[in-house]
Amino acid sequence: MGVQEMQDFKLKPMKCEMNYLSKSDGSAILAQGETVILASVNGPLDIKTQSQNVEKATVEVLFASKAGKPCIGDRYKEIIIRQTCETAVLGSLYPRTGISITIQELEDFGGLLTCAVNCACLALVNSGVAMRSLFAAVSCAVLQDGNLVLEPAAAQQADARATLSFVFDSRDKSLVTGFTEGMFSEDAYHEALERCRLASDLVFAFYRDIVTKYAPVV
Predict the structure, then answer these.
(1) Could you please report the per-residue DSSP string of 23-42?
(2) How confident is the model at residue 213 (pLDDT cuts 50, 70, 90)?
(3) Cα–Cα distance, 169 to 190 (Å, whole number)
(4) Domain of 199: which CATH number?
(5) pLDDT in tens, 120-162
(6) Nearest-5° angle of CA 138, CA 142, CA 146?
(7) At 156, phi and psi to the nearest 5?
(8) What pLDDT, on the 0 to 100 scale, is given for residue 207?
(9) Which of 58, 90, 126, 169 has the fewest CB atoms within 10 Å of its CB?
(10) In whole angstroms, how far apart are CA 151 and each of 74, 143, 186?
(11) Full domain range(s) for residue 136
(12) Residue 51: predicted pLDDT
């Protein structure tokens, strides 16, 4: 698959507003299709001695579902988002401090976790926390007929053989995080990986537009 095929790629429409919350160091509300996530960042903050890391900042993530009742799935989302953010944040600049990221699910019509990861990235950018690179999450579903579709709708995702999601950094599109559900072949994995890698350019282009809007360069 060549880069020229990017023009055939279509992701869900994305809309974002930064500085959405006045009492956080950074915030963003992101819609990918009809799925909507609100993320806020606070820090670097003073934290309890027992939670401090002498070499880098301690990143904490809280995921709040629309239902309001925490579950095992929410803890899984927190781990994925925290590991991704830890990779991107230059935590060594903020030893013995904490960076708190809160993710609030507002609407879920498929692609919830990829939307949450992307919203966390935009909230971190808005907070001014130093980062090695930005990161972008894209998902791909393996349908019952074996075809692959980027950013599946909720019905497609529910009926799919598998859903594969990948997070890439903005420097060289290297894989930061991957998470999958269902059964799939090795060939399907590699094809989904490359499709998502190419499609991540669309997400990074969206980031650039949003950052330019909120922080215009003269």
Answers:
(1) TSSEEEEEEETTEEEEEEEE
(2) confident
(3) 18
(4) 3.30.230.70
(5) 999 999 999 999 999 999 999 999 999 999 999 889 999 999 9
(6) 145
(7) -65, -45
(8) 97
(9) 90
(10) 21, 12, 20
(11) 13-213
(12) 86
Among 218, 210, 212, residue whose Cα is nearest residue 20 = 210
**How many Cα atoms within 13 Å fall on the side-chain side of residue 202?**
23
Residue 13 three-state SS: coil
- How many domains is the chain partitioned into structurally? 1
Identify the band that residue 216 occupies on the pLDDT scale cut at 50, 70 and 90: low
Alpha helices in 89-152 (DSSP H): 112-127
DSSP three-state, residue 161: coil
Residue 148 burial (CB count, 10 A): 18
218, part of any domain: no
Q: With 90 as the cut, is the pLDDT of residue 217 above it?
A: no
Phi then psi dihedrals of residue 18, to 5 deg: -95, 170
Residues 171-188, mean pLDDT to the nearest whole number? 95
Count the neighbouring beta carbons within 10 Å of the beta carbon of residue 34.
14
Contact 155, 182 (CB under 8 A): no
- Residue 26 contacts residue 129 (beta carbons within 8 Å): yes
Q: Is residue 4 in a domain?
A: no
- The length of the chain, given as a count of residues: 218
